[in-house]
Specification:
The protein has about 240 residues and is an alpha+beta fold. It folds into two domains: about 80 residues, Winged helix-like DNA-binding domain superfamily/Winged helix DNA-binding domain (Arc Repressor Mutant, subunit A), CATH 1.10.10.10; about 130 residues, Endonuclease, Chain A (2-Layer Sandwich). About 50% of the residues lie in helices and about 20% in strands. The protein has a seven-stranded mixed β-sheet, sandwiched between helices. Strands 1-2 form a two-stranded antiparallel ribbon. A hairpin with a 2-residue loop joins strand 7 and strand 8. The longest helix is centred in the middle third of the chain and has 24 residues.
Length: about 240
Amino acid sequence: MNKEVLVNVGLTNREAEAYLALLAAQESLVSEISRKTMENRTHLYDTLNSLISKGLVSYVIKNGKKYFRPASPSKLIDYVKEKEKLLSEQMPKLNELYKPKGKTPSVEVYEGQEGIKTVLNDVLKVNKEWLCLGSTGKSPEILPFFLGHFHKQRQKQKLHLRVIYNDDKLGTERGKEVKNQMYSEVKYMPKTSPATTYIYGDTIVIIHWEKDKLIAVMMRDDTIAESYRSYFNFLWKFAKK
């Protein structure tokens, strides 16, 4: 039998070796166990006493000598069950000590046109102020039909948009179109990133607007979203109209 199995259920290496040696012999003097396990007697007595306390070893006295005997292997199951019972009894107290500091941020990746549509539909679903940083103006050529319906629904929901476009030809042209939509504010800044960042509710989305590599990474976390929102508001003060 592999001693690792016994170690995995809670025995030490020395306990596992001594127990296996006793199983093979059924009854042994400490000197005999010592020869089989290569453990000195001083340590071996400690090991055997530990196994006795676990109910896995017993002993008898014959002619003034102590012979050790192994308990049935089924006792190992009882030993494990006792540990499980003890742990179950302490679980309420352990759960009281376990107090996670906020929820773990969730991250999702979306690809292609359908993936971006999923992101934009989520903007409508959350229905909280939508901040866009580093908008490239490429979205109409990638989602020409969907984007028109999206903005109609956004205005119908009175969903407010603040967007900082890249201060280049494409960004300026698209900015003029969006500025004429209801519930929209537009400003411009020099291009700082090839990606666009959305911030709404507890969500941040980073989008790479390239047809051959259209990808969006969505992250949900209140604290992180608030830090991005603060950064956007800082840039908004310096962006030009």
